[in-house]
Amino acid sequence: MEPPDIKQNIDLKRLNTFGISVSADKYLDVNGADELSGYVKSGSISPENVFILGGGSNVLFLNSPSGIVLKMDIQGIRQISENADSVFIKAGAGVVWHDLVNYAISRNLGGIENLSLIPGSCGAAPMQNIGAYGVELEQVFEELEAVNLNTGKTDTFRSEDCDFGYRQSVFKHELKGIYAITSITLRLSKKPEFNISYGAIQETLDEMDIPENKLSVKDVSDAVIAIRRSKLPDPKETGNAGSFFKNPVVPDEVYQNILKEFPEAPGYPAGEGFTKVPAGWLIEKCGWKGKRSQNAGTWHKQALVIINYGGATGREIYDFAMEIKSSVSQRFGISLTPEVNIIE
Ligand code: FAD
Ligand code: EPU
After folding, report:
1. Which of 139, 259, 284, 304, when mutated, tests ligand 2's pocket best, judged by the most ligand atoms within 8 Å of its CB?
2. 83 and 112 share a domain?
3. Which residues span the domain enclosing 22?
4. Contact yes or no for 279/267 (Cβ under 8 A)
5. Do 66 and 136 share a structural domain?
6. Residue 131: inside a domain
7. Which pLDDT tens digit goes with each residue over 20-33?
């Protein structure tokens, strides 16, 4: 039997930041873990007949999702415990990520200020181990709860169970589609230690005239927000899903070859013998920055961000992305992998 509050034919255009016009034949707001677990146990929901949706800021719909769209709307942020150094904060999957960041800032709790303004929900944050400005979710992650869509049981995952990596977790791979994450618990610091060495944070703080001995969690957040606003398009104005591809990690020899031709090419150490090369740089060097093809294009300030000029289909965005991928592969011999979840 289907859940009673299922809605029919819901337009998803405003529920994905690419602004792709697709619709959900069936759509269910999930407001609690027990409710979801009940639907699984009664046989109306299983991994085969649902698509899980958070804030829609990391998906590209090529078609309307089949089955029931489960919109994870579980709310609530609360402190569950503390010790001398840390406070443990639990947030429902449907809490907007940046609202959680603001909750931390208002209590001067450190750890997620560098992750300010990342769009999307708390429930999706562990999916790709969100990261920005030298910090990744796993650094503050304590545990999450998720409903197993095969059994209806709620399981708890600690960090070691999640197989976190750069833009990856077990939920994006082996357990893809099996678990609906219902809450996350983070370990935030009462004695914040700031991570301001990455990118332009220090420079921006200097411009803001903030002396290092007076630095607060809010200052670092403000600096990160200023940098992000200067580079990234606001999805409310221009459809996009942030970085379309991951930054490729290549053997050092490959990077050394790039350096021979472009001595200024950026690269970051990525473990013994490997270098992470910014995909945005590779894409720009192939001449794609600010280019437009019909309704798809790359952002003029950040070539790694593919944008919807309005009215693009998911397929149009995808085909444009694949042209970029093949041009980077031909020019540099490097294969780019999408970061965005492609929904076929
Ligand atoms: P959605 O897009 O709704 O879903 C993403 C995937 O997770 C889908 O496969 C979906 O099925 C699954 N999913 C969603 N919720 C759940 C759940 N509760 N349980 C199980 N599965 C679930 N990301 C970064 O890491 N760093 C950045 O700096 C960054 N900057 C961005 C900037 C812009 C302008 C935009 C538009 C995106 C950016 N992103 C960034 C990507 C995006 O914000 C994150 O991936 C975010 O965590 C996605 O959250 P969401 O709720 O929108 O997920
Ligand atoms: N660059 C170019 N041309 C471009 C874009 C970038 O030359 O068009 C160069 C920059 O000059 C810089 C380097 O590439 O030297 C890195 O650029 P940037 O600092 O903008 O970061 P990024 O590597 O493109 C990554 C994440 C972002 C995250 C930022 C900040 C990935 C795939 N992307 O972008 O995450 O916000 O770092 O930490 O790792 C996202 O995941 O959606 C996302 C936006």
Report:
1. 304
2. yes
3. 7-72
4. no
5. no
6. yes
7. 999 999 999 999 99
